[in-house]
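To whoever is on call:

I kicked off a structure prediction for a single chain this morning and the downstream step that reads the tokens threw a length-mismatch warning. I double-checked the sequence; it's 95 residues and nothing unusual in it as far as I can see. Pasting both halves so you can look.
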Amino acid sequence: MSIDLETAAKVAKLARIKVEDDALPALADEFNTILGFIEQLNEVDVDGVEPMTSVTPQRLKRREDVVTDGHMPEKILSNAPDAREGFFAVPKVME
């Protein structure tokens, strides 16, 4: 696949980037270079390769998924404009 000047201008317009007409050939060449790199990546055999989250193998720290009140309800409610009986008080929206 090759990017021509018309396609480069269209991509620039879609990206809301102002590109002068004399800069379009360089932009098209840059797009073609990027597409060339992508084609090289498509040639790599990745069958059986696990996806990585980091270059070093590591396990994410996990905690038990438990609902709590944060163990500081007074501190949290101190910022509320109106709090009653340990809850945020808000105006009634519907009757």
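Update from on-call: the warning came from a stale cache, not from the record. Cleared it. Sanity check on the structure: Strands lie at 83-84, 87-88.
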